[in-house]
Amino acid sequence: MNSHRRTAIVVGVLLILATVLNVIGTSSSRPILNDPDYLVSVAANQSQVMVGAVLELIAALAVAGIVVVLYPILKKQDPTLALGSLAFRLIEAVFYCVAVVSLLVLLTLSQAYVAAGTAEAASFEAAGTLILAARTWGGEVAVIAFTLGGLMYYYVFYRTKLIPRWLSVFGLIAVVLLLTAVLISLLNGGSFAPTGGMIVLVFPIAVQEMVMALWLILKGFSPSAVASKLA
């Protein structure tokens, strides 16, 4: 097995880990954080919150791994776009970590809130609001960074034919749809969440990442593209 085949398999596995673990992790904590009395709920569901945080952290590390592993290949075709995709996806990983840390800080705050009872409830609630805002903005910046980095590496994929062009084109479309969903949420003054009507705009990128992951694991990069562009 040559190095490019191994790289394709590693990227495929990391894509699956990043997508699946992020979805499970955020889905685990979202109902708790959406509870009107979330400071009590977070403390009451400590184990669930911790599991969600760990899964989100592993997903963030997988995100960083994807672009780090891909960079040596992409830079041989387009160093500028390769570096851009590396930078934006590392930014994505960092802000996902910010979201995870915010969740853990909120857990500590909620435990203190429950222990304090009604004493200084207003102060705890104000702090909780700020921490939730940090988590929300961390996640939104991460998604925006993903879309910008994704546009870059899918364009390089399209030019090089490292993966089938239909897959690259679908990736570009899916990334644009995701960016549209985030911008709509921001313009409407709300926080982005892949629920309700937004699922229509978010679902394609989830499908795309899984299809590309399986393609890379089972097929790898195009041998002709590797021979002509990466030799």
Note the gap between the termini: 16 Å
How many strands appear in the DSSP assignment?
0
Largest sheet: none
Helix count from the secondary structure assignment? 8
Mean pLDDT: 88
Structure characterization notes:
The chain is mainly α and 231 residues long. The protein has one domain. The chain is built from eight helices and no strands. It has helices at residues 3-33, 38-44, 46-74, 79-116, 121-160, 165-187, 199-218, 223-229.
What structural keywords apply?
8 helices, 84% helix
Describe what is shown at a glance.
Helices cover 84% and strands 0% of the residues. The chain has helices spanning 3-33, 38-44, 46-74, 79-116, 121-160, 165-187, 199-218, 223-229.
Topology (elements, then pairings):
Elements: H1 3-33, H2 38-44, H3 46-74, H4 79-116, H5 121-160, H6 165-187, H7 199-218, H8 223-229
Helix pairs in contact: 1-3, 1-7, 2-4, 3-4, 4-5, 5-6, 6-7
